[in-house]
Amino acid sequence: MTEEAFLEAYDPAAFARPALTVDLVLMGLREGRPAVLLIERKEHPHAGRWALPGSFVGLDETLDGAAGRVLREKAGFSPVEAARTRLEQLYTFGAVDRDPRMRIVTVAYLALMPEAAFMKALESDARLSAAILVVPWDGTTGGIVEAFSLGDRDRATPLSFAFDHAEILAVAILRLRGKLDYSDVAFALLPEVFTLRQLQDVHQAILGTSLNKPAFRRRMLDRGWLAPTGSREGGTSFRPAELYRFQEMP
Amino acid sequence: MTEEAFLEAYDPAAFARPALTVDLVLMGLREGRPAVLLIERKEHPHAGRWALPGSFVGLDETLDGAAGRVLREKAGFSPVEAARTRLEQLYTFGAVDRDPRMRIVTVAYLALMPEAAFMKALESDARLSAAILVVPWDGTTGGIVEAFSLGDRDRATPLSFAFDHAEILAVAILRLRGKLDYSDVAFALLPEVFTLRQLQDVHQAILGTSLNKPAFRRRMLDRGWLAPTGSREGGTSFRPAELYRFQEMP
DNA sequence: AGAATAGTGTCTTTCAGACACTATCAT
DNA sequence: ATGATAGTGTCTGAAAGACACTATTCT
Lengths: 250, 250
Description:
The structure is a homodimer.
Chain A: E1 19-30, E2 33-40, E3 50-51, E4 54-56, H1 63-74, H2 79-84, E5 86-93, E6 104-112, H3 115-124, E7 128-134, E8 146-149, H4 165-179, E9 193-194, H5 196-207, H6 213-223, E10 226-232, E11 242-246
Parallel strand pairs in A: 1-6
Antiparallel strand pairs in A: 1-2, 1-4, 2-3, 2-7, 5-6, 7-8, 9-11, 10-11
The first copy, chain A, binds a DNA duplex through residues 195-197, 212-215, 217-219, 222, 232, 236-242.
């Protein structure tokens, strides 16, 4: 916009333009590590490789709207579940040759959900598979993200990604790490009520490091985001932990 | 991409698609505050309002490439200057009605430059004007950005923005604040060599707060990003300060 | 000498890391 | 009682804020 020569282009079809899609990093936690939902491509190009679920952006929907639609159409979320999922724009990828068929620019989104919703989405659509992400801790640089099928216990054969989706995943993990301790992203990966131990596990899974227990508890409780529910977890064979609920800053 | 029904769309013109642009927040510092370069719109819509420089994204250029082209074509940067300017993707705005003429999605970029380059760009193109940004310090929320013409010393009449460009500016300021103390963004607003006082002024201008001098110096020097040049600033009527140069982390 | 800022020494407070300790629950 | 984890008290060290002080340059 703000183009002087714009008026000449008033006919929307006058100029060739890139196609626009959204691609979603559907992220949850499995086995104490970040995990994503992927689709195995059946057609060319990149047949047999793993891709993020996505869709074209319609003329009459916002980017967030298109991302929400993918959540419902491709991950089997009900409108209520989709509204409860934390959806955040990540970055826009526009390399000229990122798709060999034609010029496609994609707006990547990060969708965070608790483990239960992650598993439900996985089961809702046979095309979806879950992959565990293994991210080397190399400080702040992009780093290479490796993904392994949930069944691949030995982490023997890493999955290969379609298009630039490995890059998108690397950006997703980095963003998550960066926002972890000043925002409330971690709570989007937890159920409604949770223990402090679970919260610490989430942080550790995202950071890929272990954290000091007393310091972590102090920091979390001092922040004022946690409201004790008064009840305790059940089903343990040891002392059950207090359950907390996330509540906005006052 | 990753659309099953994709093959049906193999004809690039088959589906109506949003137009795609880049818009640039050309940012420098003036009078100890953040300032941006804006273009006053002459045509409808939003004639008389102030807009960010931007352009459509060509089929054969990347997003970063299109942003660099705007830098050269609209801000009069030479290729060398453009390459030296720090250009960073900010966020992608896709509200359906953000442009009344047609559906346009825009990828916003933040371009940071030292004061000299900022003034040179301002003078290179008569259509460009500089505006001082006044951002209320309301913690982390979006907040309203007000802009005033460089000549408007009393800050009497705020400029009104075209399209959603006020929102884009708010995101830009917030991003800058967020990255200020873990990244090297501040150095992009300073000349090659600079004093610690100038560095502190940049931080204060972006944050909108004043900072503790000894603590600031300690933090900056301990980070290891500053290399003393051995020479001192000139032209002062008092003790001249040591000049430093930014150098990457080892 | 005086003015003005550069640059530092040090005290205090705050907070993270570490470790050990106590508390509580199921079996 | 035992085992296992929840949860806390406290020491230590690192780093920020505050304040006052010294240092250096120009006029």
